[in-house]
Amino acid sequence: MLASKEALQRPALVLSDVHLSSTGGSAASRALAALLESAPSAELVLAGDTLDLSLEPRQQHVPGLAAALLQYHPRLTQALRRHLSHGGAVTLLGGNHDAEAFTPGVRERLLASLGVQAGAPLELEPWMLLRGDVLIEHGHRYDPDNAPAHPLEPWGPRTEPLGVALTRRFLAPSGTLAFAHAHEVTPVAGLARAFRLYGARTPLLLARYFQVALQLVAEAGSQDYAGERLRGDAKLTARAAALGLEPALLRRLLAVGARPTHEDRRATFLRLYFDRVAATLCGVGGAGAALTGSAGAALLAGGAAWYLARSVRAGGSRGAGLPERRLREAGERIAELSGARLVVMGHTHRVEQRPRYVNVGSFTYCGAEGRPYLRLDEHGSPRLERAPR
């Protein structure tokens, strides 16, 4: 169980999903700089998806890329430099879009880019963080489409979670980031939206999408996930000691994670709606052939229509609401297992507040009410607040 502490070393500001890139996050980075300047004694906890590394090709040098992306946001860079130079602390947690940042050399390159000394209190934590009896993590471990094989072992080019791989291989190169949350819509709704947004480009985009999706189905379930888990487990005892937890407790928390979609070919096939695509093609082809009087074609068309109707009735969108529910249930389970007074996550981009679980949503993708963050006072007492847009 977590050891409750009466006081933190310093108050903390916890926020998530800033999604800084070379082309996005500018308004959020300025708002974050202003927030940081208003709280010089606080620790800034960036709870995952701070840098949008998944928008870039994998072969890039990650330490250099991470530092370069930060330089696109000069006011935030200056605020971080001042904060760290004057003893303020900054901690970055790993998310699904910036998991690569938690590899050797990144911290040193970030410090050099910020122009601060090697001993500055900048920490990079790949999985979770404890502040008193408050447990903080990004939350992608509980979303099957974005879950890693192990939170302490970086994934490889062919073991990226499904959502990350789709972003890197299709959404970013094709300029279709409007579909970053494609799990929220059905294929028919997505197709209609694609024609509205991209017009004449849509057929080419669809062809590229199916090419990537078929590659992902072919790769699913055939990679070295077991090796990643073994390498991650080898780091678990040392990580538990660093967190001040018993290894057995950390293993129980590890077991709460979701089974990654991309580790199962059938699950990947269904998640990408290939069953409905196949049923649609069979239905259209069978109906056309049935006009020639073929009883077999008529049977095929009828069976395809029945399958489609049954599938849609069971759930139009297979992902809508799933991440929110998974993270909420995981947060409550983690609080129960660990004794944490509060579990804090991000990832879903939707704010949610319950007695022992808070999702701080996204600091960038927020509504008109402002940019959400959690303020922890020196006793670890939480207060959900909003920064101006």
Summarize the structure.
The protein has 389 residues and is of the alpha/beta class. It contains 14 helices and eleven strands.
Helical content band: 40-55%
Q: From the structure provided, what is the oligomeric state, counting identical versus distinct chains?
A: single chain
Most strands sheet: 6 strands, mixed
* Tally of helical runs: 14
| C-alpha termini separation | 39 Å
- Give the SSE string: EHEHHEHEEEHHHHHHHHHHEEEEE
Strand order of the main beta sheet, please?
4-3-2-1-10-11
- Ranges where pLDDT stays below 50 over 5 or more residues in a row are none
CATH architecture type of the largest domain:
4-Layer Sandwich
Q: From the alpha carbons, calculate the radius of gyration and give it in angstroms.
A: 23 Å
Keywords summarizing the entry:
389 residues; alpha/beta; Purple Acid Phosphatase, chain A, domain 2; 6-stranded mixed beta sheet; 5-stranded mixed beta sheet; 14 helices; 44% helix
Structural account:
Strand 3 (90-93), helix 4 (106-114) and strand 4 form a beta-alpha-beta unit. The chain is 44% helix and 12% strand. The chain has two domains: 12-156 and 233-263 and 319-387, Metallo-dependent phosphatases (Purple Acid Phosphatase, chain A, domain 2, 4-Layer Sandwich), CATH 3.60.21.10; 274-313, no CATH class. The protein has 389 residues and is of the alpha/beta class.
